[in-house]
Every structure is written in C-alpha cells, then in structure tokens.
Amino acid sequence: MQAPGVYPLALYRGDTHRWQARLWDDTAGGTPVDLTGSTVAAEIRDKPGGTFVVELEATITPPNIIDVAIDGEAMWATCPSKGVWDLQITNPDGDVRTVLRGDVTVTGDVTDSVVPPVTSRRG
After folding, report:
1. Which residue segments constitute the domains of the chain, with CATH numbers given?
2. What is the pLDDT of residues 41-92, one digit of tens each?
3. What does the DSSP 8-state code read for residue 26?
4. pLDDT at res. 28
5. Which has the closest alpha carbon to 58: 116, 98, 107, 108?
6. Quick count: other Cβ atoms within 10 Å of Cβ 15?
7. Is pLDDT of 117 > 90?
8. Distance in angstroms (rounded) separating the CA atoms of residues 121 and 117
9. Rounded to whole angstroms, how far apart are CA atoms 121 and 73?
10. Which pLDDT score is estimated for 123?
C-alpha cells in the first residue's frame, strides 16, 4: 500500500476553505482511481488521537474526485490553531486507506475577529 500524500493546510480562521483531490492509478494521471461505492471521511485534530476534532465536509464525485470543505462557523467553533488532518477512503469491500495527510496551521482573523456567540456556532 502506498503512503498517504502530504498536503499541509494553511487556513484563515473564520473563512470558508475548499480543496479538491483527484486520485490516479498511474503517475501520469491518465487512469483515474474508481471511487464508485466508496465513502470518504476527513478530520482536523489538535494531534493524532487528540480530543479537539473538526469533521470536514468530504464528498466523492466518481470516478476519482474528492471535494473537501470547512465553513467559517466550524473554524470558529472547534478548529485548533495548530494541528493535523487526514483524508481516508473506505472502499466497498471495507478496506480503509488514508490518501492525504498534513499539518494544519490556522491564522487568526482580523476582520470579524470577535468570536460569534455560542448560540450561532455549530459544533
């Protein structure tokens, strides 16, 4: 099994962030990985196994596209200033593999830098 690719995240607190991964079976990028029937999950944590968890929105568009996002409210509510993240796929046969991982650095917001009231935050 191949080691996960490394993709560090440099996020700005309070902003919406979106990124996309396309998986290929060959190094030339001509043969897409077939993700049909697979599921995907991604999280940011303060450290591996850490208690601060931010679940990222992750969706698959077959055959090989994974879209990942975090909205501004989730950034305020739970995202640590420094941490780690990864993206894992569960294939229809139950095999799990992590395809991306990296460090996370969150820069504090200047405009709208006051933390929203707890009642408006999602957790």
Report:
1. 5-113 (2.60.40.10)
2. 999 999 999 988 899 999 999 999 999 999 888 777 678 889 999 999 999 9
3. S
4. 81
5. 98
6. 14
7. no
8. 7
9. 6
10. 43
Q: Which two tokens stand for residue 61?
A: 């568009």
E runs forming strands in the chain = 5-6, 9-12, 17-22, 39-45, 53-55, 57-61, 65-70, 82-90, 96-107
57-96 b/e (C-beta count within 10 Å ≥ 16 → b):
ebebeeebebebebbbebbbbbbbeebbbbbbbeeeeeee
Q: Which of 3-12, 24-33, 84-93, 114-123 comes out lowest in average pLDDT?
A: 114-123
Q: How high does pLDDT run on average in the chain?
A: 88
Token output for 39: 């599921």
Prior bond to 63 cis, omega within 30?
yes
Q: Are 23 and 77 in contact (CB under 8 A)?
A: no
Q: d(Cα 20, Cα 100) in Å, to the nearest integer? A: 11
Give 31-65 as a DSSP string: SB---TT-EEEEEEESSTT-S-EEEPEEEEETTTE
Residues composing the chain:
123
